[in-house]
Amino acid sequence: MDNKNIKIAFFDTKPYDRPSFEKYGKANNVSFKFFEAKLNEDTAELAHGFDGVCAFVNDTVDAAVIDRLESLGVSVLALRCAGFNNVDMKHAYGKLHVLRVPAYSPYAVAEHTMALLLTSIRRIHKAYLRSRDFNFSLSGLVGFDLHGKTVGVIGTGRIGRAFIDICLGFGMKVLAYDKYPSPDLQNDGRVRYVELDTLFSESDVISLHCPLTDETYHVIDEKAIERFKKGVVLLNTSRGALVDAEALLAGIKSRKVGAACLDVYEEEADLFFEDNSGHILEDDTLARLISMPNVIVTSHQAFLTEEALENIAETTVNNLRQLFDTSSCPNELCYRGGVAEDCKSGKCF
Ligand code: NAI
């Protein structure tokens, strides 16, 4: 280990990012320069003189950005998130090491998902506003019990499983769908893996916890919604493009979808994380969704707990130290274009 100082350009910085990254960076000789700008073709230049860049979910790491970073001598992209759908992984092959934080407090996201569900079905968002205005009427606040209802969970990885545990605690029946079902969940006896069709038609609540891939893009589209039980509650705390927002809006207008809770939105990149309160919202679909009494939108905040922020900073710094100190990739962390085998065989360097 040579413990060389690693210089990282940190993009899309928010005030809540700095304390944990400064703490773990200082302790591990990783210096972060915090830029408020998002990473894109115009801002990639800021990475000049840095060993790597640290990016988040709404930074753009397409072919042009990757080429620019490579030409500046940047060798690593450290994503401070789990998903990497915003990175052109094929193009990154042979150019950039791509590190990510595969797991950080799955409870943060799972608990936010349940918070959204309870807020929606017990009308807490309405009651909160009413009582602040000394309006103590209960009209229009009738909810329903979760106990005994069926939840369909798509994606039974870390977050999906944490959410399933919470739902089981509420006495719900659990249906699950995963491309790679987990054997221990299959044997658990309390969770039934089913095909998507069955999950769609039997669930009272549907929650998305799979990654965004070509296969899962618009997994909730017009056809899926047609198969839903009338009045279903749809929860999406995973990635916006899992849901065709236009189809969802139509489903809400037709009363097929009883409620939707969205922490993510397909076109969130230019909106979420920013204060747009003084601006005219150009996105009519989002504006219409937000105007609905049975839609709750949070701006990609499911990860935002103290524990998750600590985990994210610690893992990112450890990933970087491991990469620079061992002269071989921390293979499971570095995809280098999605070809982990290359990392394992040391071809990364
Ligand atoms: P994970 O990798 O532990 O689990 C993902 C699961 O999805 C796996 O079981 C996998 O087999 C399954 N899967 C893969 N392809 C599938 C397909 N085509 N159909 C159905 N299932 C499929 O990931 P984790 O940690 O549970 O995260 C899940 C997602 O949550 C991430 O991909 C990310 O998009 C999102 N996320 C959202 C956050 C937020 O703040 N809103 C924060 C962190 C993650």
Please provide a brief summary of the model.
With about 350 residues, this protein is α/β, with parallel strands linked by helices. It has helices at about 20-25, 65-70, 90, 105-120, 125-130, 160-170, 185, 195-200, 220-225, 245-255, 285-290, 305-325, 340-345, and strands spanning about 5-10, 30-35, 50-55, 75-80, 95-100, 150-155, 175, 190-195, 205-210, 230-235, 255-260, 295. Strand 6, helix 6 (about 160-170) and strand 7 form a beta-alpha-beta unit.
Description of the molecule:
By secondary structure, the protein is an alpha/beta fold. The protein has 2 domains: about 140 residues, 3-Layer(aba) Sandwich (Rossmann fold); about 190 residues, Rossmann fold, CATH 3.40.50. Helix content is about 35%, strand content about 15%. It contains 13 helices and 12 strands. A 7-stranded parallel β-sheet has the order 8-7-6-9-10-11-12, with helices on both faces. Strand 6, helix 6 and strand 7 form a beta-alpha-beta unit. The chain is globular. The chain starts with 5 loop residues before the first strand and ends in a 5-residue tail after the last helix. The structure holds 1,4-dihydronicotinamide adenine dinucleotide. 1,4-dihydronicotinamide adenine dinucleotide (NAI) binds next to helix 4 and helix 6.
CATH class of the largest domain: Alpha Beta
| Class based on secondary structure composition and strand pairing | alpha/beta
| Low-pLDDT sequence parts | 336-340
- CATH architecture identity of the largest domain: 3-Layer(aba) Sandwich
Mind summarizing the main beta sheet? 7 strands, parallel
Helicity level? 25-40%
What fraction strand? 5-15%
CATH topology of the largest domain: Rossmann fold
Estimated radius of gyration: 21 Å
